[in-house]
Specification:
Radius of gyration: 13 Å
Low-confidence stretches: none
Oligomer: single chain
Mean pLDDT: 88
Shape: elongated
Strand order of the largest sheet: 1-2
Distance between the termini: 28 Å
Number of strands: 2
Helix content: 40-55%
CATH class: Alpha Beta
Number of helices: 3
Order of helices and strands: HEHEH
CATH topology: Rossmann fold
Strand content: 15-25%
């Protein structure tokens, strides 16, 4: 597993980092965890399925 400190070193070289996931049941968990860490998130899904993710205002 990659240490958090190693990830922070990499991320600090970028100005606009977001966690991107493909739409799935796991996507909700990943985005929720990313929000807990203060990250911005983006989900990619089929047209019409975005409603599922918009219902969760914390992660949308």
């Amino acid at each position: 597993m990659i240490k958090r400190s190693e990830i922070k070193k990499i991320v600090n070289d970028y100005s606009d980092v977001r966690i991107g996931v493909l739409g799935s049941h796991s996507a909700l968990e990943v985005m929720d965890g990313a929000k807990d860490e203060g990250m911005q998130t983006v989900v990619y899904c089929q047209k019409g399925r975005e409603i599922t993710y918009k219902r969760f205002s914390r992660i949308a």
